[in-house]
Amino acid sequence: MATDPLPQPTNPTPNPAPAPVADPTDHAEARLAKLRQLEALGVDPWGQRFDGHQTIASIRELPCEPFNDAAPGPKVRAAGRVVGRRKMGKVYFIDLWDQTGKVQVMVGAKQVGELGWKIIELLDLGDFIGVDGEYGKTKMGEATIRAAGVTFLTKSLEPHPSGYYGMQDMEYRLRHRYLDLIYTPDTLRRAHQRVQIIRTIRTFLDGRGFMEVETPTLHAIAGGAAARPFETHHNALDIDLFVRIALELPLKRLLVGGLEKVYEIGRVFRNEGISPKHNPEFTMLELYEAYGDLFSIMDLTEGLIVASVDCLGAGRELPYGEKTVNFAPPFQRLKYSDAFKEHVGVDLFDREGVKRRAAESHIPLALKDEKAGTTADKEHDVLVHELFERYVEDKLSGPVFVYDYPAALCPLTKRKRECPELAERFELYVHGMELANAYTELNDPVTQEATFRRQLVGLAADDSMAKMDDDFIRALRHGMPPAGGLGIGIDRLVMLLTNTQTIRDVILFPLLRPEVG
To answer: Which residues form the Aminoacyl-transfer RNA synthetases class-II family profile domain (predicted)?
Structure first.
């Protein structure tokens, strides 16, 4: 008996196919033998172009009445993967799947002819076929394509995974993402939603006069963030290079060059740890707007996030794990110092109070130089940062803009004129996860050079992070307009908006250890 099709979503969230039940006769040798039989029939097992086919979702939107030879239904042409196959006498029922959904195909020996019937009998789960036929309902009320012709398009030589509810082993899913997309509904849904979100970001920024640019991936100096880079060597030039850790400094050079609104969505690489929120290779949005500042970028960020939420069509109150997030603007705005005092219990500028609170929290008050065998007191702002991470971040349910950060934590940020100990920076938090980071950009070359030099103190000469970007300072000396800048981790944004708890599930190919065996 034919099974019911998967329900079609009102929002474009495609339906991956359920994994087939294991068949003990389904193995690679048997599939290869069927390939040879197809070749003997004169059928190309790897197929040819198949023009004019419709998506399965668009077929399912057509009028669907019970089959009636006196009043035929719509003529359709479909192509996809075979994910189900049942025989009833001289009729096969095939479940045909593409990335937009699934539909039943009814194939009769009389309708498709001798060659078509032999092709159907040689089908395995995972093969690709094209179907021409009529769309309507069976006697059981099942929406179905009644095939008038079958075209073989590709042979699958490996058995597909078993178990109706899909693949359960995470390691297997990540290493076989191509199968994961077919048989795990949420994986394909997230892939489509990620594309929707990125497309929306581009449309939003383009509509506000921003220019999308591309900047180099290989840098002579690893700059723009405090992160450990991946190193490589350029053979032709015989120079060592770094794979970029940030997009920032080249984009600011473009501000100097007169491109007043620029952005890039690009991959960055940091040779650091892996966690549910970190992958060594990830996607960043960075943008810069001449004549803007911290608060103009805050407004822009809020609009961009809301547009990204709206494009998914599920409303502005979204689930995240066991919690919900209300993205209805305006977002909360909270000073760093106020959040610190509320949750840590001491004033941000109370040096003795911060030391005491750090000691009570068993945070080391000194750093040891392993090479020199000496220790030095941690700077006040380092302790502030560690206390903030421990006591404040997980209290920020948000969306909340936390702004006016300690200046020592923000080497590329303009200081507040009325309080130079603070920097004009914000971070956007949602349920303790940092989602965006933005500044009023530091465009004073003298202060910027001094800040860079302070960062380099104590680093070994051969350290990849111990090089001054003199060209960037030179660019600033030619004049960069006052500006606001923003960075958003695209992977984290997609995690949040698709209710995904690990970054590996929103990156199609996350970094994995080499497969053993």
So the answer is: 197-514
DSSP secondary structure, 58-124, as one string:
HHHTS---B--TTS---EEEEEEEEEEEEEETTEEEEEEEETTEEEEEEEEHHHHHHHHHHHHHT--
Rounded distance, CA 434 to CA 303, Å?
17
- CATH class of the domain at 28-177: mainly beta
Give DSSP secondary structure letters for 369-407.
ETTTTEEEEPPHHHHHHHHHHHHTGGG--SSEEEEEEEG
Distance CA 390, CA 180 (A): 36
Rounded Cα gap, residues 217 and 214, in angstroms: 9
| Six-digit token string for 12 | 């474009």
pLDDT tens for residues 273-310?
Answer: 888 888 999 999 999 999 999 999 999 999 999 999 99
pLDDT digits 0-9 by tens, 374-406? 566 678 888 999 999 999 999 998 899 999 999
* Cis peptide preceding 514, ω within 30 of 0: no
Task: Please say if the pLDDT value at position 11 is more than 60.
Answer: no
- Mean of per-residue pLDDT scores for the chain: 89
Question: What is the SS3 assignment for 422-490?
Answer: EEEEEEEEECCEEEEEEEEECCCHHHHHHHHHHHHCCCCCCCCCCCCCHHHHHHHHCCCCCEEEEEEEH
Give the integer Cα–Cα distance in Å for 465 and 156: 49
Break the chain into its structural domains and give their ranges. 28-177, 185-331+398-505
What pLDDT, on a 0 to 100 scale, did the predictor assign at position 6?
33
Tokens of 396: 């920020």
- Establish whether 424 is an annotated binding residue: no
Residues 6+ apart with CB under 8 A from 351: 380
Is residue 427 marked as binding?
yes
Torsion-angle region of residue 114: left (phi > 0), alpha (psi -120 to 50) or beta? alpha
In this prediction, residues 196-218 reach a mean pLDDT of 97
Distance, in Å, from the CA atom of 241 to the CA atom of 248, rounded to the nearest integer, reads 17
What is the average per-residue pLDDT within 80-99? Answer: 93
Q: How far apart are CA 344 and CA 384, in angstroms?
A: 9
- Do domains 28-177 and 185-331+398-505 share one topology? The answer is no
Task: For the domain covering 185-331+398-505, report its CATH number.
Answer: 3.30.930.10
pTM check: above 0.90: no
Instruction: Return the CA Rg of the chain.
Output: 29
Task: Please report which residue ranges of 99-229 form alpha helices under DSSP H.
Answer: 109-121, 170-175, 177-183, 185-206
pLDDT of residue 368: 62
Question: Residue 454: pLDDT above 70?
Answer: yes
